Amino acid sequence: MNDLAGRTGAPALYGYVMGGARAMAEAAAPASGAWTTCLGREARAGYLGVADGGPTLEDCLLEPSDAGARAVARAAEAGHAARAAGAAGILTAGPARGAAGLRLPDRLGVVPL
To answer: Which branch of life, at top level (predicted)?
Structure first.
């Protein structure tokens, strides 16, 4: 993501669904840097094996409030208006089922629903 943002000079946002219960969001921007977080944090913790001594969510992902703030900064670099509370609300909404994962780009002003 950093390479893409660096080569294009523009912010990049990428997301993907993992097993239907969690979705990952990765972003990078020339000025605000890169970050990774997820929707469906409990499912992601199970995937990482947190209960079995694996890495914690905090080792790998930003907290929803931090990710929301970074997402807003990335959106601003892209010329979109976004609110941290709206982005953080999606990131704390629970499992990424149905349209929940699609609401993040909407909250960042990228693709209105």
So the answer is: Bacteria
Sign of the C-alpha dihedral computed for residues 38, 39, 40 and 41 taken in this order = positive
Predicted confidence (pLDDT) per residue in 8-52, tens digit: 988 888 877 777 667 778 888 888 888 888 777 777 777 677 677
Residue 45 lies in a domain: yes
Place of tokens 């990335």: 74
> What total number of domains does the chain contain?
1
Give a yes or no: residue 56 inside a domain: yes
| Measured distance CA(62)–CA(80) in Å, rounded | 22
Q: How far apart are CA 10 and CA 100, in angstroms?
A: 25
